[in-house]
Design a protein that fits this description.
alpha/beta, Spore Coat Polysaccharide Biosynthesis Protein SpsA, Chain A, Ubiquitin-like (UB roll), seven-stranded mixed sheet, 12 helices
């Protein structure tokens, strides 16, 4: 056994990082790579870890799963779902002899832990921690044994190690936490996802136990130090929420910043068009309806030019967006209590997904993300929201310049009227490969 070494830099040999992405897990209930931990998905977290430690990176999984990942996925080309299949595909594609192999479901791993594995490589085929074959450092010399076992259907990677030269080192147990169920996310050494909290629940009939619920807290939006709105939201991406809110209110957003004390639940906006008299209403927005607290419908309407972008998107792609949105909602999978909004390109590729207790907040966060990235107006992109399509959601889409808005539920009459006026293609009841088009159907290719 070799004790954990503390390194400040990697050893000299060139390394290839292999990320085993996996797919939908029966125990986890959804793809682990999309589960959110400490503000980022497990896939993003593991990919960034390998980027800190390796000159090259390869992500291996099933292309048929169509996971909305921010990196390219190498299809392992094998029908079986087992780490051995991904490891073989990764080693075959690796341009270096030495490979650092990380499964997507070890969120507590650190660069120091990977350095320790690499330092112990010596002339062995494999270096693993005391808990088993993954994570580990594998040489391509192990490939013939692994390929033979895979071809024979002997899929247990642990068993394959008995034929290889293996060095085992001791790593701190807290670094090797493995995520098998959503509840395991809270067992890692860092805080559970910001979007969820654990509460006691009595199952009827049944017993008392702990369960996850969506977090709901107030956020005060300020301009020049003056409070202009309070909204109940799910903490996280608060600057994006404020920027999306400002865009929808016609304030001409410039930037948003959080205070040093994040517990203060405030965000400061910088805008171009601040009419203090118009905004001096200190309205309270409930988490279920972004219009609540405003005295009249006229107070909601914001002057925005009709959307002129002549985007064309196939009906099949539009009908698939709710499923793509759902696949990127780990907090909803955990709690069942969060709305989602997403931004997609014309092929259906996921660009951004945000979750919140309020569907209007989720959409504000997505639009705020796009604004920060210089993507507004959204002339070539599509917005999709969970739930019904309200007047305010159409208003936000129009103000952001998105030509197509898709929803899982039904639109209101006023939402349809506004979509017609603002030239927004409005699609509802998008599910099971079907959808209804309520305004400007010329953008939908059938």
């Amino acid at each position: 056994m070799v004790e954990l070494a503390r390194f400040t830099a990697l050893p000299e040999p060139e390394l290839t990082g292999i990320l085993l992405v996996g797919g939908r897990s029966a125990r986890f209930g959804s793809p682990k790579a999309l589960a959110r931990f400490d503000g980022e998905t497990l896939g993003e977290r593991a990919w960034a870890l390998l980027g800190e430690s390796c000159a090259r990176r390869i992500a291996v999984g099933k292309a048929a799963d169509e996971l909305p990942l921010p990196f390219e996925l190498l299809d392992d080309g094998i029908e079986v779902r087992a780490p051995l299949a991904g490891l073989v595909a990764g080693l075959r594609a690796a341009p270096t002899d030495l490979c650092v192999v990380v499964p997507v479901d070890c969120p507590a791993l650190t660069p120091a832990a990977l350095h320790s594995l690499v330092a112990a490589a010596g002339d062995v085929d494999v270096v693993v921690p005391q808990t088993g074959p993954l994570p580990g450092v594998y040489r391509r010399t192990a490939l013939p044994v692994l390929e033979r076992r895979l071809a024979a259907g002997e899929l247990r990677l642990r068993d394959a190690l008995t034929e290889l030269r293996v060095a085992e080192i001791v790593l701190p147990e807290e670094l090797l936490v493995n995520v098998n169920t959503p509840h395991d996310l809270s067992g890692a050494p860092e805080a559970p996802p910001y979007a969820t909290a654990r509460v006691s629940v009595v199952r009827v009939p049944g017993v008392e136990e702990l369960d996850f619920v969506a977090v709901e807290e107030p956020l005060e939006i300020r301009i020049d130090g003056e409070p202009v709105a309070i909204t109940m939201r799910t903490p996280g991406h608060d600057e994006e929420l404020a920027l999306g809110f400002a865009l929808g209110e016609g304030l001409g957003p410039i930037a948003a910043a959080l205070p040093a004390d994040l517990a203060a639940n405030t965000v400061e906006l910088r805008v171009r068009h601040f009419d203090s008299e118009r905004m001096r209403r200190h309205f309270y927005t409930s988490s279920s309806c972004g219009v609540c607290g405003k005295g009249a419908l006229a107070a909601v309407a914001v002057t925005a030019p009709p959307v002129t972008a002549e985007l064309r998107v196939s009906a099949g792609v539009l009908a698939s967006l709710p499923d793509r949105l759902r696949a990127a909602q780990p907090a909803f999978a955990l709690t069942g209590g969060l709305h989602g909004a997403g931004l997609f390109d014309p092929t259906g590729e996921t660009l951004c997904v945000r979750e919140d207790v309020g569907r209007h907040n989720a959409l504000d966060k997505v639009i705020g993300w796009a604004f920060r990235g210089g993507r507004v107006p959204l002339g070539g992109l599509v917005l999709c929201v969970s739930g019904r399509l309200s007047f305010e959601l159409v208003q936000k889409a129009a103000c952001a310049g998105s030509p197509i808005l898709v929803g899982v539920g039904a639109p209101s009459s006023l939402a349809v009227e506004l979509a017609e006026t603002q030239r927004v293609t409005l699609c509802g009841f998008a599910r099971g490969g079907h959808l209804n088009v309520y305004a400007h159907p010329h953008r939908v290719l059938r």
